[in-house]
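quick one, three chains, predict together pls
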Amino acid sequence: MKKQVIATIAGAVALACLGSQALAQSRDLNVVSWGGAYQDGQKEVFFKPFNATGTKLTDEAWDGGLGVLRTKIKGGNNTWDVVQVEADELEVGCDEGLYEKLDVSKIGGASRYLPGTVHACGVGAIIYNLVLAYDGDKMKTAPNGWSDFFDTKKIPGKRSIRNGAKWNLEVALIADGVSSKDVYKVLRTPEGIERAFKKLDTVKSDLVFWKSGAQPPQMLAAGDVVMTTAYNGRITAANEKDKKNFKIVWKDTPYTMDSWVIMKGTPQKANAEKLVEFMGRPENQAKLPKFVRYGVTAAAAAPLIDKSLMGDLPTNPDNLKLAFAEDVKFWIDNGDKLAERWTKWAGTK
Amino acid sequence: MLTRQRSALLLPLTGFLLVFFVAPLVWLLSLAVREAEVPRALPRTLSVLQTWQPGQALPPSLFPGFAQDLAEARAASTLADAARRLNYEVNGVRSTLMRAAREVSSAPADTAFNQVFFASVDPALASPEFFAAVQRAHGPFSAYYLLAAFDLARNAKGEIEHASEANRIYIDVLMRTLGISASVTVLCLLLGFPVALLLTQVTEKTADWLMILVLLPFWTSLLVRTAAWVVVLQKEGMVNSLLMRLGLIAEPLTLIYNRTGVLIAMTHVLLPFMILPLYSVLKGIPPHYMRAAASLGAPPVTAFFRVYLPMAAPAIVAGSLMVFILAMGYYITPALVGGGSDQMLSYFVATYTTDTGNWGLASALGLMMLVTTIALYALAHKLSGGRALSMG
Amino acid sequence: MKPWKLLYWFLCACVLVFLLAPIAAIIPLSFSSGSFLTYPLPGLSLRWYEEVLGGGKWLTALGNSLYVGAIATFVSVILGTLASLGLMRHKAWWSEMLKLVVLSPMIVPVILIAVASYFFLAPLSLTSTYSGLIIAHTVIAVPFVVVPVITALEILDPNLARAAAACGATPGVTFMRVTLPGIMPAMASGALFAFAASFDDVVIALLIAGPDQRTLPREMFSGLRDSMTPALTAVATIMIVFSTTLFLLMQVLQRRSRKNSQIVR
């Protein structure tokens, strides 16, 4: 009997030790971005230097989806502090109270940033395009844009698109003949949405989905697909790092801005603001395009950026002329509904 | 040993499992039949609706309370959940509700919040259909998520019917999960039975060594094995290069991110789970039955099918059920080597938990999984004479 | 008959090759000097092992896996052995029921255990902590201890215990000096299985572990989706070597235990 009592006590003590460990743990500041070559660049330009200033920083990657953030807040015990979110996630999340209200004075003042990049709940981080990418070594003639992307007879082979409705519906409509100026007008009608899904159906059997931004260059490199949608910066980074000859088609591609937000209720709010301020400094932001060709949001950064990189930036006037801006309001209003529709569409043959 | 002593010995583990295993599972399954999002966000609305019937006109006293609920829920961040819940029944109402809450909060102080006001925000918010949906979501218990998991829904009148076309996928997913598991089981059986048979026919020493070859992959991490397949099955990976080198194919085959990849990888992972139970039972079949059949003039094939197989049947059933049950619960392998239309139930449970936040549906699908698994295990237990739970 | 037998042996050989080839195929890739996962290898180099073992996220992940695994195993062995002592040779309805509950983490799909633990531990602030991960891993690891230990306890000749009692030993002494040595190999093999269960787990870590507690499989999972470099194959090779060692240890233990039970009989 004594043996059993001792054993029970020992067990209880062990569990108690575990429990006290839970209380004793304090958390480091955590920043969450999109992973892959982009986050590698951010590590060099922002995270490692910030770590060196004395505040410990850990970084993680995610693939987007407001539901993830909602779940983190709802589930309690959220460990994400500073997160990079897409434009509609910024708006909707702010509305739902998922983020802390941003005090612009703490991150360098409104004049530091380009007009339109400061928001009640977040500040702009990068401007980028979702482009059509292909391997220049394997495909000698460039595809003429989205209509070729959806034409498996002209260019046979698998294509890859992001696993989500956003941007895919737009390019499907453009491939179906809608001009990029009218895309959102058409998408606001139920017939427009049906038309987009029908166009996607025509290539469905040749579609592979990517979730994280690092996958499209990998798929091109492995020869798994002949064409893919991709973030422009990842393609140029793959060309530089892995000596690839991937090519980008800029025509009729959507561009948008991602922003940094601070998650509601984080115990690290002061440090989070310090980090966002650090990442908003023009001299820091100017270093980013060398790693990934994205437009940055600090007004004074532009002259500091290497001129030779300008051709690949989304904010280059030549590229802006060909592209079209994402209609954030459309996705705010319809994001959730279309996300569900997409999950069902993608999950069935 | 006295019961008192036994109880004391069992207490630590039992307590631990009750708290950290049984309770969480029960909690999870209870989420499938509960709902509290709408009562939390729209309490006044619901209390007015208590005396309302769907056929009647909407009482004017409804709207001021509704407005107050909206404003408070928005401030307390409880509106989003309720809006999402109601969106499942009234398509599009999620963003409408959020917009309405914004307008209510920013409206001038003397605005009359009545039916006209809400109709001007969006006609849906003044419609009986919408408030019927609100009333149906009063909780605390609800069959809503369970119905959705079986592709059913309640229509405006409250009757059960098939869910709308776009929402009807879970039965398909269940069939797909069962189908993939069945295919993998058959493949494992076809590949595993000869090996198990061979193990019984060689000497003990050889069997030991061969067994090591079978167990080695079993001990290798599931992720490592899956990663190996991701590398090997790529378009420019080893299998394709080998086949092209041998001249068997001209174009590389697509072996990954589709059903083929899933079947190959899952068969590979689950094969040891077929071989081990098969071997442990086949080992016990005395060889003299086959010899007797041969001495009575039966050719080896006939002897095999009419004498050996019937005796091996319990082993086959045990191994097959084990593989089938394991295959049904798999998440990692299909997620890494499969395409969008190859994902099984576990994927949806995971996605709805972390990505969409639809915990009710995740739990309902989880309940579906659990019931199926337990039923199969009970079947395995019965058919194998109680040996299903032993570790081969 | 001969050609049939040949075909049969060939088929079995193919199956065994199928089982082992993919695992063997990725090991050489970890020594590639290039950054792609294709044969032929451009050259040999240890750069990927340097990257993985030279500090950074992989080493931290390995450390996390070992730490979580060790503690989860320790707790599982204690709880599992105690429970086995309580369950052995008992045929009452409630102990059968209890046996079922104890073994049920092996039946319940791990995704459900992971999701349930997530919902349960998050409000208790135990997600993104080592404790939460250890607790969840212990749940799935305990059955692996209970099964061999109960079997070993029931195989052990009860007369030994009675003889010890007849010689005046208290139940505590009997346990420590008669029972425990007898079931030690079973406990050890249960511990190895438990450790393997914890070390190999991905799904629970996916749902519960925070950025600081990322285990090796969790990190590999991200790597497989995010950036596939031969560093992954280096990690995989390390894990293969590790599990092979564990496995061979298991074999040794099982032979020892077989000898033990023979002596006891």
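The interface with chain B takes residues 1, 4-5, 7-8, 11-12, 15, 65, 67-68, 70-71, 73-74, 92, 95-98, 158, 163, 207-209, 222-224, 264, 332-334, 336-337, 339-341, 343-344, 346-349 of chain A (CB under 8 Å).
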